[in-house]
Write a structure and sequence with these properties.
This protein is of the alpha+beta class. The chain has one domain. Helix content is about 15%, strand content about 20%. A four-stranded antiparallel β-sheet has the order 3-4-6-5, with no helix packed on it. A hairpin with a 2-residue loop joins strand 3 and strand 4 (about 20-25).
Length: about 80
């Protein structure tokens, strides 16, 4: 665990709140809306996230980002374990 916050939308992590900053996950569907925001690694050796501190007061743009996200992938059914005899 990373010890900070991870907001979920439709059972998917969409951002991280860490070090008093909002890091938005970069996905192709939201690339145009995140253009111009600085990118920063949340932790070493991971993909960079869009640093969205300047958007915190603009709730409409944050809502636009969430509406632009792709629908979550359906969960695969868990394999049933064979009964032991």
């Amino acid at each position: 665990m990373f010890g900070e916050y991870g907001p979920y939308v439709d059972d998917a992590v969409v951002a991280f709140c860490a070090d008093n900053s909002l890091f938005l996950k970069l996905v192709p569907d939201t690339a145009a809306l995140l253009a111009g925001l600085p990118q920063q690694e949340l932790f070493p050796c991971i993909k960079p996230y869009a640093l969205a501190d300047e958007r915190l007061d603009d709730s409409e743009r944050l809502h636009d980002l969430q509406r632009a996200r792709p629908a979550p992938k359906p969960k695969r059914p868990k394999a049933k374990k064979a009964a032991k005899r």
